Amino acid sequence: MKIQKAAVIGAGVMGAAIAAQLANAGIPVLLLDIVLPDQQDRNFLAKSGIQRALKARPAAFMDPARAALITPGNLEDDLKALKDADWILEAIIEKLDAKRELWAKVEKVAKKTAIISSNSSGIPMHLQIEGRAEDFQRRFVGAHFFNPPRYLHLLEVIPTPKTDPKVTQAFSEFAETTLGKGVVVANDVPGFVANRIGVYGIVRAMQHMDRAGLTPAQVDQLTGPVLGRANSATFRTADLSGLDIITHVASDLGKATPDDEDFTLTPAFRTLVEEKKMLGDKTGSGFYKKTKGPDGKTKILNLNLETFEYEDQGKVKVAAVDAVKGQPLAARVKALYAAEGREGDFLRGVMNDGFWYAAKMAGNVSNRLQDIDNALKWGFGWEQGPFETMDTVGVQTVIANLEAEGRTLPPLLAAMKASGRESFYSGDQTVTPTGEPTTYQAPYFILTDLKKDATKVVKKRAGASVVDLGDGVLLAEWHAKMNALGEDQLRSVQDAHKLVQDMGYAGLVVGNQGENFSAGANLPLILSQAQADEWDELDDIIKQFQQVTTSLRFSPHPTVAAPFGLTLGGGAEFTLHADHVVASAELYMGLVEVGVGLIPGGGGTKEMLLRFTDMQQPGQQLGATLLPAVQRAFELIGTAKVSTSALEARNLGFLRDTDTVAMNKNHILQDAKRQVLALAPGYVQPVPRHDIPVMGDAAIAAIKSALYGMHQGGYITDYDLVVSEQLARVLSGGTGNNRTAKVSEQHLLDLEREAFLTLLGKKGTQQRIDHMLKTGKPLRN
């Protein structure tokens, strides 16, 4: 059942985006759609879908070149080509008759080993394949992606009663490993998991808003990040999804579910859809509307549900939200659940609805509690699922509140009350939908599961830890805000190196499972020391930083970096020096120091020069090939270029061809561990290079000439010129006329440190750092 070729039928928004994600994973895809009678090009719809995916923002392709893996076609001329596909997915119109008609055609041409799937978000899977052969039904499994498929982690895999369990298992493994999805196995019931519970929550929040007399903007403040949920919260999510889609899904679920599952939309919501035709982002207006102010800046207007007019309400303040600012998530959730006044009443109503409904759905939409939690986290952007949130509040507290409201407890909560258990998850234990103890089955190798065993943490600091990954591999893990690099992070790597040598470990992984690998250096600390004229201390800090980053290459044991998300500045420099990199496909990596008036000081400038000069072709004159390498490094660093994926990071030179890209972020630590174990036998400690060719004054002159033109043309500012000249000096190897000079890595590191400190002492750089810290945006001074 290995999937090496795929076919997607339906080149609409979802179909084309799913085809793009398959191409991102390196899977050749046949994309088919109908033939339009008024179009000369019979493949017009499929080609249009590919072009739409190429233009999509956020980008559907990790590398535009991957679009070449998609072959456009049509259902009349190319139906027989389905015989080569190992997986066939339909993403056509949501009409049962149309899907049944399609499957009748596919059955005649698909090979007998192909897995067949539907991306339907609402039509039950078993209804689609009625009348098909038993063999076809055994190979059929639902595959419900969430939009956009590249960025939303969730994939609901929905077997029917006829689906062969081996098909479900094989497809789930492919989806998780090759496509990088978070797989939730859902039962073939209305709404499956995420939409069933998520849409219920949206509908009920609207009803509670009316009762509490709150506005949509106030509700979004209460049900967004403060509660550990997505920035889009409730009403912004509705606008993004489309109010007509919410109406359609809620209506269908209301018809298909029992009377106590209330999916009734409020009168105001129905007015927006049925009378006003204000459907959210797709029509330009919904609960919110974007407009341009007199200053040309975009403003967000809020809908007044009494007048149906838009108002500029400014920054909406909510007392319950302000009261918990700065607190960790668990403390915020507990405080909000216990809050007083109409805001507290609203939150308890919404949260109790969600708790009651999730418990009622356990065993109905899915057979594992963690699948329900994961569906809401991966599909709706929650930090905690409903059962995890009940654990935070206290399960018995929730039960008491539900009973006080006169609710009948679902069987799961009744069992929890009888057992007296205070949480659904405890160590490696959880419960079944009927409340019986069972073992928690983690979806993958993840650090949070390791931490359940305290003995796995070998050494701990406030902002970093050293963790035993098993099999003789240590992990230097950072866990500070944005994983900004400070003393704890550097010392954790030093701690880990020492432990590897002293205790006989095989090697080291540098990684973590925060939101980002590392956003770079601790700028507030650097700025405060510069303003206090602590230059000897800063010089020592930069030396130490260089020693730690380069230690990833020059240690007597293998080191593997596992970057993901934001990997900027110093985070990128750590990555560049590892023996091997296992990168998440969603990697946003760059040397961005020029944005704050600095250059990379931890070996990043040196490393990019070394990499690009090593690419020169033997036999050519040094100057002829070296200048393009210098210019390439200068452009990459001088423009603070950040990759939009690991594939682009490889094209830019941040990753080597030998480095590994993992589609699933949650696999990178396990893959990195395997790489350490593969490198360990016979590992020979590398030695620093002393043969790096540099051009001296010739390179400086060439770069300065280009900079002069850019400055005269207004493309760079006066201070951009100052920073760029320091960068040019490092990349040239310093001043000197010898075009064939060879220098050491340490020579370039010394130049880096000198340039970094020189710039840090200038007023222009300090202004840039201060502005970045205050606004989060670069200053063009």
Structure characterization notes:
This protein has 781 residues and is α/β, with parallel strands linked by helices. The chain has 3 domains: 6-185, NAD(P)-binding Rossmann-like Domain (Rossmann fold); 194-439, N-(1-d-carboxylethyl)-l-norvaline Dehydrogenase, domain 2 (Orthogonal Bundle), CATH 1.10.1040; 454-760, 2-enoyl-CoA Hydratase, Chain A, domain 1. The chain is built from 31 helices and 24 strands. The strands form 7 sheets. It has a 7-stranded mixed sheet, with helices on both faces. A 5-stranded parallel sheet has the order 3-2-1-4-5, covered by helices on one side. The chain has a 3-stranded mixed sheet with strand order 6-7-8. Helix 24 runs antiparallel to helix 25 (622-638). The longest helix has 21 residues, at 341-361.
